[in-house]
Amino acid sequence: MFYRPEDGHGLPHNPFNAIVSPRPIGWISTRASQGDNLAPYSFFNAVAYVPPQVMFASTSAKDDRDGTKDSVAQIRESGVFCVNVVEYAARDVMNVTSGTHPAGTDEFAVAGIAKRQCETIDCPRVEGAPAALECKLTQIVKLPGEANFAVFGEVTGVHMRDDCVVDGRFDVTRFQPLARLGYRDYARVTELFSLKRPDD
Q1: I need a surface site. Which of 36, 81, 164, 170 has the fewest CB within 10 A?
Q2: Mind listing the pLDDT tens digit for each residue in 130-155?
């Protein structure tokens, strides 16, 4: 099968997200004049080592947020955000925070999630998350499409839960990170294997 996105795919559901998968989930927490916010984004990844940098993309809008969603609007105002890593055990509360709420709603409270203060930025983070990356905004890029924005940040602080650090390595099997697939599907990482590069 081949299709041009501009012509449509002819399938019952869009296959694009299923093709580009699995994708890590950035559980983005923010703080601005309307309060604290927490929302998951599956268009998320690390993009550079030195300095460490991450990005996430927001692809829809709310009527009360001037052409975007709460997270981007909050980051525009504050210049900071935190990426919380989602473990399998937090799948249900993460899903609660994906709901559409009026601007100013604190999803930490809605989902019953405890929060902690970040160290290097004025922003909340998910207490007990396997890891959290405190980030300073570097740029917001408007992408083609009505409400598509890519948010880039430099990591200024890194939290790792003690039980996830084993023999000097961050062990993802200790918490089984949640990944987004296509449609309404998810996966979790439960086992690893290693490959040596040809020049190792």
Answers
A1: 170
A2: 999 999 999 999 999 999 999 999 99
The DSSP bridge pattern shows strands 35-41 and 169-170 to be unpaired
User: pLDDT grade, residue 200 (50/70/90)?
Assistant: confident
Q: Spell out the domains of the chain, with CATH numbers in brackets.
A: 21-188 (2.30.110.10)
Structure tokens belonging to residue 43: 């268009």
Instruction: Report how far residue 58's alpha carbon sits from residue 143's, in angstroms, rounded to the nearest whole number.
Output: 10
Q: Please, are residues 86 and 178 in contact by the beta-carbon 8 Å criterion?
A: yes
Helix (H/G/I), strand (E/B), else coil: 144: coil
């439960």: which residue's tokens? Answer: 190
Triad 38, 36, 48: Cα angle to 5°: 55
User: Any idea which residue has 């997270």 for tokens?
Assistant: 71
Q: Please tell me what DSSP assigns to residue 143.
A: P
- Angle at CA of residue 126, ends 73 and 76, nearest 5°: 15
Instruction: List all residues 6 or more positions away from 153 whose beta carbon is below 8 Å from its beta carbon.
Output: 53, 54, 55, 80, 81, 83, 135, 136, 137, 138
Q: Over 90: is that where the pLDDT of 66 sits?
A: no
Categorize the per-residue pLDDT at 103 as very low, low, confident or very high, splitting at 50, 70 and 90.
very high
Mean pLDDT of the chain: 97
The H or E element that residue 110 is part of is helix 107-111
Amino acid at position 45, single letter: N
pTM: 0.96
